[in-house]
Amino acid sequence: MSHSHGPSSSKSVMDVRYTLETSQSMGFLRRGESLTAGAVVAQIPQELDGKASVCGLKAFLIDERRCFTVDGGPVEVDCAKVAALDITDSPVHVHGETLETYHILAGFGRMLVGDEVHAVGPGSVLVIPPGIRHGLVANDPEHALRVVMTFTPGLAPIDYPMVRDERILAPSAGGVIAELSDEE
């Protein structure tokens, strides 16, 4: 299913932080471990540990350590690179620089991408370029979608708002999708 409603809100990037020119990648690491010079391998857990994120229950798997220039000085931040999430209804949000990839492992739902709605399920892969609003909602709120997400570059955590590249546009993807359906 795909509905198109024009480009009016697909490029809302106002107030998003732009940090690529003032940061550099220092390498990758498994969450909570030391920076490594080589490849990083992580296992998707059967059950997520219950850490709530903006989008749902999240298990951070691999981080990218980035060094940002903040107020004239360096700040090292471990940013999410790969994470597993259980999502029932994410907020609609946008990134100014971050390319996000969603790999749907389990569950069925609808993904808002710009002003289009796409049916998704196991095996669906979505690549969301910077500047496009998006959000994911499960068809059944009792059965979350299990998703592996990648962020390029790594996305700074919410406790580093001065370098986090994300702007929440609406609290519920399900609500925005319902509004689009009502317009038809």
Describe the main β-sheet briefly: 7 strands, antiparallel
- The top-level CATH class of one domain is Mainly Beta
Continuous helix count: 1
Instruction: Tell me the strand percentage band.
Output: over 45%
Radius of gyration computed on alpha carbons: 16 Å
Choose one word for the global shape.
globular
Following the backbone from N to C, one meets helices and strands in this order, namely: EEEEEEEEEEEEH
How would you name the oligomeric state of the polypeptide chains in this document?
single chain
Please name the CATH topology of one domain: Jelly Rolls
How far apart the termini lie comes to: 13 Å
The CATH architecture designation of one domain is Sandwich
Poorly predicted runs = 1-12
Q: Roughly what is the average pLDDT, rounded to an integer?
A: 89
Structure description:
The chain is mainly beta and 184 residues long. The chain has a domain at 51-59 and 80-183: Jelly Rolls. 6% of the residues lie in helices and 46% in strands. The protein is built from 1 helix and 12 strands. Strands 1, 2, 3, 4, 6, 9 and 11 form a 7-stranded antiparallel β-sheet that branches. The chain has a 3-stranded antiparallel β-sheet with strand order 8-7-10, covered by helices on one side. β3 (57-70) and β4 (73-87) form a beta hairpin. The chain is globular and about 50 Å long. The model is unreliable at 1-12 (pLDDT under 50).
